[in-house]
């Protein structure tokens, strides 16, 4: 059959009405349709290769089977990729599909949601309060940490605080921070610096020495030089992520220095290459998979029957819904 198979074709093959086909294929349990009739409709659909029209289903329900995840306007790192993977896997178990979109700095979340009519929205980046209020007032299920976290430092997930605590416990008093200067990282850099500055103050350490660092060998050498040779030399550095930690290690090598003897270096995320660095990188591991599952469950809990389709029960509550953030773990190696 050259043309697209329709529900009318399935109805004719099964000897039932189109309404019956619709009830069966949409999993509607409120109709008195016998098990034999359901089996006959499903068998006819399989034999004909029938696939429901996504556009028609979206029009009928007033939403699609997509869950939209809005990402910050920064390069996709391993931690964010793991969040996407975990959320996608959780949603697919309930008949939904995840689509991830990097939100530009100028915003536009409301118009994007209106164009896609998603079943739910996951925010991994903050929105302006007016935008967030408009989305919530529409009845769209929204999974966001923006309104659920009580501490403004919580969005850093405890990474910066753990970095400083570890370095201070090792005896370091003068701590540097290397962060990306690119505009796309601005929000996460802001919360990381706030967390590190707060941790230094709590431990009665001087304010951290902050250096912008692009992933460039020359810049890395210059930053390390300023850390080591400044009026109050830095003895340990918190890198924004493992990539920037690798840059600091390269900068040390350019000066004929090494970690941790000349500068202790600690990263964040624990990418697979961290253990292969020279020296192996001390870092903070983020439980990104649990965070992704939590985002998905927050959406599912707000949709019909917990899955957005009415075909399966809501997911059971777990640690991800306890209101606490997934823990971060210190991975101690040789660089700090």
UniProtKB/TrEMBL annotation:
One of its GO terms (molecular function) is DNA binding. Residues 304-329 are annotated as: Disordered. It comes from the Bacteria. InterPro entries: HTH_LacI, LacI/GalR-like_sensor, Lambda_DNA-bd_dom_sf, Peripla_BP_I. Keywords: DNA-binding, Transcription, Transcription regulation. Residues 5-61 form the HTH lacI-type domain. PROSITE patterns: HTH_LACI_2. CDD domains: HTH_LacI. Pfam families: LacI, Peripla_BP_3. This is LacI family DNA-binding transcriptional regulator. It comes from Arthrobacter citreus.
């Amino acid at each position: 059959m050259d043309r697209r198979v329709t529900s009318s074709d399935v109805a004719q093959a099964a000897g039932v009405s189109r309404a019956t086909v619709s009830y069966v294929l949409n999993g509607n349990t409120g109709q008195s349709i016998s098990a034999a009739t359901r089996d006959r409709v499903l068998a006819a659909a399989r034999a004909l290769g029938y696939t429901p029209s996504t556009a028609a289903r979206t029009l009928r329900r007033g939403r699609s089977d997509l869950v939209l995840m809005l990402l910050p306007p920064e390069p996709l790192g391993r931690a964010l990729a793991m969040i996407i993977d975990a959320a996608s896997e959780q949603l697919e178990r309930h008949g939904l599909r995840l689509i991830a979109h990097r939100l530009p700095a100028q915003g536009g979340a409301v118009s994007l949601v209106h164009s896609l009519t998603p079943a739910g929205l996951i925010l991994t980046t903050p929105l302006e309060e007016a935008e967030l209020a408009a989305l919530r007032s529409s009845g769209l299920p929204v999974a966001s940490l923006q309104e659920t976290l009580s501490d403004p430092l919580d969005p850093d997930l405890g990474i910066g605080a753990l970095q400083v605590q570890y370095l201070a416990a090792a005896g370091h008093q003068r701590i540097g921070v290397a962060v990306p200067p690119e505009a796309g990282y601005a929000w996460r850099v802001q919360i990381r610096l706030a967390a590190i500055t707060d941790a230094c103050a709590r431990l009665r350490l001087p304010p951290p020495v902050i250096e912008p660092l692009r992933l460039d060998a020359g810049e890395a050498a210059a930053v390390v030089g300023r850390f080591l040779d400044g009026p109050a030399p830095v003895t340990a550095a918190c890198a924004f992520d493992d990539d920037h930690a690798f840059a600091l290690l390269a900068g040390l090598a350019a000066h004929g220095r090494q970690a941790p003897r000349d500068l202790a270096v600690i990263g964040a995320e624990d990418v697979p290459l961290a253990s292969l660095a020279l020296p192996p990188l001390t870092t903070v591991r983020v439980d990104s998979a649990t965070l992704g599952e939590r985002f998905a469950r927050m959406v599912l809990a707000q949709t019909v029957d917990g899955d957005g389709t009415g075909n399966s029960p809501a997911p059971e509550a777990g640690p991800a819904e306890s209101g606490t953030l997934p823990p971060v773990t210190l991975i101690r190696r040789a660089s700090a």
